[in-house]
Batch of 2 targets.
Target 1
Amino acid sequence: MHNNGHTVEVDGFDTWPERPFITDGGLGSSRYLLTQFHFHWSQNGDGSEHTVNGQHFDAELHLVHIKEGLTTEEAHRTPDGFAVVGIFYKTAFIGRPLVALQNGLIQVTKTDDSVQIDNCMPNVLLPTDLNSFFRYNGSLTTPDCNEAVVWSVYEVPRFNNAELIQLLRTIQGEDGKPIRTNVRPVQTFSRRA
């Protein structure tokens, strides 16, 4: 887990004996290998980069996968080079804690802080309803915002305990102050359906 001054990112999946991947479900026969996941949030509850019926959520998790056989540079130039799974996070009293993740967040509050986290399987980050999602071709949400992503955004949020969102809001940016927001504004549909 690493604080890069803009978000908290978890990577290293390429070193796992069995690297997590996604396939099928509208992605065709291609396999997309998990390369990293990161968070988007804000200080005021509109921390998701996607909305449902105009509604934002407390945070949004992006599980970033790269098409098998492509380098990162090639994926940036390929319309379906990445498959990103977006998951809305919402605070709830009965929310499920993510202990390993929360313990890591405590240790990476400053820019360039890093910590090894164990026992954080990507499947525990998912919402309970895996059948309802939106799929569209779009862009990365960070510069250069390449049109190289097949997006899958779950409709139903994952409910978390309040501590996770509170910890994200303590993460400091390059200026040494808590990141107010790291959310790209909602984009128009452009040519997307």
Target 2
Amino acid sequence: MSVFRMKGFDLEQGKAAMKVGTDGTLLGAYTIEWLRKSLIRPQRILDVGTGTGVIALMMAQMFPSAEVAAIEIDHGAAETARRNFSRSPFASRLSLTEGDYSSVSSGTSPREYDLIVSNPPYHNGSYLPGDEQRQIARHSGTLPPEVLFGTSTELLSPSGYIAVVLPTSVLPLYDRAALSCGLEMVHRCLIQTIAGKACKRVIGLWTGGGHSDCTEELLTISTGAGYSVRYAGLMRDFLTIF
């Protein structure tokens, strides 16, 4: 059985189509830091498309008074996440629902969450990976931006935030969908894997209207000679290599 060990918890990965990776862990760590610097302490958090449960677990670790819910459409991944939750030190504050986001949300109290996070499927076009589970996990047809933001606005508290990690190429598509739902981007973090290379990922944070500025940061993961000080600092509470 494949187990990924983190500082605060262990993750079984066996039945999850998408394993623990940089996108998810960086989304969790960066969002936590940004909220803390903004003096925001969410009490109700929702992880959409939780996969192994890594982002939900990171949130539970670093916000010790928060209740963290997760939604996952894939049965195998949902089983895996449920086991990871139950074996963690935060089991009493974690819950999981298996199903489609837009359908599951109908049974959830409106305006309930202070923070909604998602590492959504991102393949959009004619190409699909061959494995069916990976198709579900990676193809944007299962969670298009209109559904992600449209459903989230029904569940988000008036002062709540949505944090998403995406390929930079699809950020305009997601931002248009967010704007159509009355959400404005307040911060984005452009991510380059190696110094000097093009940024292929971005973390965006959206909230309700009334914010005039969108701040921006460039985050480099590797200098070419090792991990950057910035990246190591972000991941120090989570990854055992730091």
